[in-house]
Amino acid sequence: MMSMTFEVSSSVTLLFDFWSVHGPAGMVLSVFVVFLLTVFYELLKVFKVWLGSRSKWTQPQDPYAAPQTSASALESSPSESSLTPMEPRPPAPDNRKRWLIHAVQAVLHMLQVTLGYMLMLCVMSYNTWIFLGVIVGSGLGYLISFPLLRIM
After folding, report:
1. Which of 53, 96, 110, 127 has an alpha carbon within 20 to 30 A of 31's alpha carbon?
2. Centroid of chain to Cα 27
3. E strand map for 17-151
4. What are 21-80's pLDDT values in tens digits?
5. Is there a contact between 12 and 27 (Cβ–Cβ < 8 Å)?
6. Which residue has the higher pLDDT, 47 or 1?
7. Roughly how many angstroms between the first and final C-alpha of the chain, as a whole number?
8. 3-class DSSP state of 22
9. Mean pLDDT of the chain
C-alpha cells in the first residue's frame, strides 16, 4: 500500500510505469521536468487569458451603444445631433474568425486542465522533491507570466 505522508526519497513512480525513478540523478531530472511543466502551465494560463481579452473578435459589439465622441452641450442637443453626420459603425466581426479563436481557446483550456491534473497527480506521489518542484515552478511561472500581460 502506498504511503499517504510526504517522504524524502530518491525513488518514485510518476504518472506512468515507465517514469520510474531510482536514484538521485533521475530525481533531479524528474524534478526539473515537473518544474518546467509547471512553469508552462502558468504561461499557458496567462496566454489563454490574454488571447480572450485582446481579441477584437471575441468581444461582441453592442449595436445599440452610442458612439464615443466628446461633444459640447449645444452639439448634443436633439436638434443639432440630427444634423451632424453619423460615424460609420465598425464592420461586424466575422463569425468564422470568432469561432476559430473560440476553438483555439477551447483546445488551450483542455491542455491546461490536462496539465493541471497531471501536476496534481505528481504531487499526489507524496514525494517532497516533486512537491517542491511543482510549488517553485508555479511561483516562478506566475512571477514570469503575469507581468507579460501588461507588455502584450
Report:
1. 110
2. 28
3. 20-22
4. 999 999 999 999 999 999 999 999 988 888 877 665 545 555 555 555 555 555 555 555
5. yes
6. 47
7. 49
8. strand
9. 81
